[in-house]
Amino acid sequence: MIELSHIHRNFRVGNQMVPALDNVNLSIAAGEYLSIMGPSGSGKSTLLNLIGLLDRPTSGIYRLDGEDVTVLSDRQQAEVRNRRIGFVFQAFHLVPRLTAAENVELPLILAGVPVAQRAERVERVLAALGLADRSHHKPEQLSGGQRQRVAIARATVMQPAVLLADEPTGNLDHKSGQDVAQILEQLNGGGITLIVVTHDLAIGQRARRRLHMLDGRLERDSGASGG
Amino acid sequence: MIELSHIHRNFRVGNQMVPALDNVNLSIAAGEYLSIMGPSGSGKSTLLNLIGLLDRPTSGIYRLDGEDVTVLSDRQQAEVRNRRIGFVFQAFHLVPRLTAAENVELPLILAGVPVAQRAERVERVLAALGLADRSHHKPEQLSGGQRQRVAIARATVMQPAVLLADEPTGNLDHKSGQDVAQILEQLNGGGITLIVVTHDLAIGQRARRRLHMLDGRLERDSGASGG
Ligand SMILES: Nc1ncnc2c1ncn2[C@@H]1O[C@H](COP(=O)(O)OP(=O)(O)OP(=O)(O)O)[C@@H](O)[C@H]1O
Ligand SMILES: Nc1ncnc2c1ncn2[C@@H]1O[C@H](COP(=O)(O)OP(=O)(O)OP(=O)(O)O)[C@@H](O)[C@H]1O
Ligand SMILES: [Mg+2]
Ligand SMILES: [Mg+2]
């Protein structure tokens, strides 16, 4: 479903070139559950952004469901992204002027879901994440871990085909982190392809397949499915 | 050195009132090393912001070095803060248009440190945090953990009397997190009062004195120094 071949991603800063992804080859079947771990700066977010069509490779091919998505226009990539991919950002990226509930409702509005259904879906996902009594708070009126959970709610409310989570528990205590992992795994149990970037071994080891990155390369792959 | 008596902090959101801090009493001597742990939303950041003079209590007294700082004006609080307190924010709060080095240099400029000394001090603290080759990157050109380390560098470069760190390792792999803890502990070894809010037990247990919060209250204090 997700096939990366000879993916390179370089960044330029002044005269310096940063090889953030260095010849990454990766094949992921629909419904898989992967974790990606590795040192700070090793390329995990860059890889996730690329898979999530938020960034393009410098060279190499990315096939999503057999289609080469590297040749799509920005607008076409955005369409694929909005329809099929949910993203929990490492820096959350919530809309400051909207409440938690309004932030979570955004993807439903963009997808044309009728208003009556939206309220009920937003309420359900916020309650599952322990945020029922915070739905009318704006991001600045929430704790760090509460903002993180709103970001998770927003990414999951559409039940996307692919769910990409970048450090979803970094601001959560142990128990809340386990609750979040369970929620993500329930979605995976329903068929959603799940990729979790994490620094927490307790979370990373729950995945069926575990990748490890170092200096932009895929250093280890516990379950390379032969392609 | 830090004395909180009967501290309450309430937030209003619409008709709702959130008792973020509920009768907190705490006495911290100069040079102590404390960790504060507790569930997401339990009041840790609110407590740290209060100690760091970034927020005022709804009621109660806060004495810093024997002086009641709750009666100071905003401007006077800002002066005390800039002179004596270093803060690593849970959300980093780096200046987007400045490079990593320029962000770290800011407190030195504000304190009137001469330019020749500034360059050398910035370079030293960035190198200690593994960021020597990222000093000319802007925040958006850094990984999440690199931004976190720039925030730590900025908070520590002035060697403040009190160092407050809100989840300083949440975006770091295990090894980088240990490096950061060591750097903070070296500063404490030099006499700096150190308070670390963390969700990571491995980091929290390194502190000499450990506090635990729940629902806005100080639930446990492993080493209450009798005040
Ligand atoms: N500006 C605000 N307005 C309203 N409520 C607030 C505000 N800031 C914080 N709160 C609420 O106060 C409570 C404590 O928040 P705080 O940020 O101190 O929690 P925390 O322990 O740091 O959590 P985390 O571990 O998630 O960072 C939370 O329930 C939060 O929703
Ligand atoms: N826009 C950019 N411009 C220049 N360099 C960048 C940019 N984005 C990332 N980098 C660099 O690419 C490398 C990989 O970054 P990435 O964000 O993928 O790391 P990461 O593994 O997610 O790290 P962390 O665990 O700290 O979040 C880093 O060294 C970073 O400095
Ligand atoms: Mg990252
Ligand atoms: Mg907090």
What is the element string of chain A, with H for helices and E for strands? EEEHEEHEHHHEHEHEE
CATH class category label of chain A: Alpha Beta
Helix content of chain A: 25-40%
Determine Rg of chain A (CA atoms, Å): 17 Å
Task: Give the beta-strand count of chain A.
Answer: 10
Give the strand line-up of the largest sheet of chain A. Answer: 6-7-8-3-9-10
Biggest sheet of chain A, in brief? 6 strands, mixed
CATH architecture level-2 label of chain A: 3-Layer(aba) Sandwich
> What is the oligomer described by this structure?
homodimer
Q: Are any ligands bound, and if so which?
A: adenosine-5'-triphosphate, magnesium ion
Please tell me what the overall shape of chain A is: globular
- Kindly, what is the distance between the CA atoms of the first and last residues of chain A, rounded to a whole number of angstroms? 11 Å
Low-pLDDT regions of chain A: none
User: Biggest interface, and residues per chain?
Assistant: A-B, 34 and 34 residues
CATH topology of chain A: Rossmann fold
Description:
2 copies of one chain form a homodimer. Chain A has 227 residues and is an alpha/beta fold. Chain A has one domain: 3-Layer(aba) Sandwich (Rossmann fold). The first copy, chain A, is 34% helix and 28% strand. Chain A contains 7 helices and 10 strands. Chain A has helices at 44-51, 74-84, 100-110, 115-128, 144-156, 174-189, 201-204; strands at 2-13, 16-28, 33-37, 59-64, 67-68, 85-88, 162-166, 193-197, 209-214, 217-221. Chain A has a 6-stranded mixed beta sheet, with helices on both faces. The first copy, chain A, has a 4-stranded antiparallel beta sheet with strand order 2-1-4-5, covered by helices on one side. In chain A, a hairpin with a 2-residue loop joins strand 4 and strand 5 (67-68). In chain A, helix 3 (100-110) runs parallel beside helix 5. The longest helix of chain A is centred in the C-terminal third of the chain and has 16 residues, at 174-189. Chain A is globular, with a radius of gyration of 17 Å. Chain A starts with a strand and ends in a 6-residue tail after the last strand. The model of chain A has no long low-confidence stretch (mean pLDDT 95). The interface between A and B is medium-sized, with 34 and 34 residues. Bound molecules: adenosine-5'-triphosphate (2 copies) and magnesium ion (MG) (2 copies). One adenosine-5'-triphosphate (ATP) sits between chains A (11, 13, 18, 20, 38, 40-46, 90) and B (134, 137, 140-146, 171).
